[in-house]
Amino acid sequence: GKSIIFVNTKAEANELAVSSTLAKDCQVLHGDIIQKQREITLQGFRDGHFNNLIATDVAARGLDIPQIDLIIQCQYPQDTDTYIHRSGRTARAGRSGTCITFLTQREVAQGSLARLEKAVGQPFKRVGIPQPQDLVSVGLEDAKAQLEAVHRDVLPHFKELAQEFLEKDPEEALARALACVCNFTQPVQSRSILSARMGFVTVVIKTAEPFHSTSYVHELIKSHLDLNEHQVRRIADVELCEEPSVAVADVPHDLAKKLLDQPSEFYQPGVEITRAKSLPRLKPVRSFGGGGGGRRW
């Protein structure tokens, strides 16, 4: 399907257009593009010659392109009107569509998402950074389509080597081939869902009683793992959720493993700790001063 990717500046549009993942299937639309080239670009987009249009707001104002499946906003919109203009490029004429907006942890903490939801009268679903398995799953869908599209006449050129691999370990041979097709030939570094920190795991903590502050979450993790103060300070981010008895925390991988490997009977009564597969809705909070990395205790 077609997508429009909105950025704030011409420099950002040009930089994104030369990225290895988009360069072969995108064009740019911004104020430095002459009118004739804009018309050619838009017609090519309509005709399906490329599927991704990277645009600034000024250049995209008033665009009427049917069948846009996805809108991506690379930064938090400057105002509600900008968001409505951008997101309104999809889900037109009775069609469905998706709009994805990137926000920083600080913007969420300052209530930007909540204000935008209130302004447009629509709840948003917040998702964290894709995890390795998410990326692999998407890659496998594409790999299956590519494998099924291979013409039978080219297969004889590969059968001798295929037979050689099959004689060793058929399952591993196919797994290696799929990994190459998906371009996953090296281990994928995982990041936390909450803050995208490398080497951290986001855990979901549920209790029988509501959380009144993030300090209680720190104390709960500290008591379960018998941590000293230095180890407690390694916990990077803690956020309370809209559901009062739920919180999420970014915990270093080694501590998260200890926490999640504990049998449930070792937890305090009414406490449940699991690895986050997706983000629950977070409670908007005010940011106090600069820095702090989201920690407010």
From TrEMBL:
Gene3D superfamilies: 3.30.70.2280, P-loop containing nucleotide triphosphate hydrolases
Keywords on record: ATP-binding, Helicase, Hydrolase, Nucleotide-binding, RNA-binding
EC number: 3.6.4.13
Any one of the GO CC terms: cytosol
Keyword Hydrolase in annotation: yes
A GO molecular-function descriptor: RNA helicase activity
Annotated InterPro entries: DD_DDX21-DDX50, DEAD_box_RNA_helicase, GUCT, Helicase_C-like, P-loop_NTPase, RBD_domain_sf
Helicase C-terminal domain segment(s): 1-136
Keyword Ion transport applies: no
Domain of life of the native organism: Eukaryota
Protein name, UniProt field: RNA helicase
Organism: Stereomyxa ramosa
